[in-house]
Amino acid sequence: MATSLIVMGAAGRMGSTLVRLIQHASDLTLSAVVEPKTEFLPPLTSDCLVGTKLEDVIDKCRGAVIIDFTAPEASMANARLAAQHKNPHIIGTTGISEEDKVELAELAKLNCIMFSPNMSVGVNVLLDIIPKLTAMLGADYDTDIMEIHHNLKKDAPSGTALRLAEAVAEGKGTNLSEVACYHREGIIGARPQDEIGMQTLRGGDVVGVHTIYYMGAGERIEVTHHAHSRENFAGGALRAARWIANQAPGRLYSMHDVLAKKA
Q: pTM to 2 decimals?
């Protein structure tokens, strides 16, 4: 049986990619799209519902998995409505605050929710490996993270960069909030041993590049992930949608849960 889906922001960069991939997948059904600017929607099948907000379609799409790459405020409102209707919710929105994450965890006790600021399979494998690599290298290696994105990205550092930094902090046995450095200027003195630097570059149409630098005496290790297209993230979101359709509420899921089990 095909998994039924609702795509939020269907005319956006991620939304239109999702629509195209879903309509070419034999095991997925695009039941509805939500887009305030309906004049910019990609081609849709005649049986696909169209709404300018989630309330317009959710009653007619019972059980459909909602895929949401919108904005923090919109995603939180969608999560509350999805929980009321028991529609599983995949959230790939970046810039979600710590306070909002706490609320998502509470909503996840009532409804299936999976949140990941990066749906890439490769990035999520790195998130599993980085704590081990960091711990093995030890305190003698200084660590900085640099991320590059297109000039329209609104949040900085990226949600992916922050997750990678959290993974590094885990490997160092510390909390990111205590060691993160987002800005260096002037006479700042010697680098603290546990500091994790975060550098942000913005320009052009770069989909996403993240590099972790481990700098030791006489050598440097660079771990880089290049996202060449948005199909990478969209494919991960669809893999998550197939997986979450068969799960039960109870806790806030992540991409790690999706990859840990057969999708």
A: 0.80
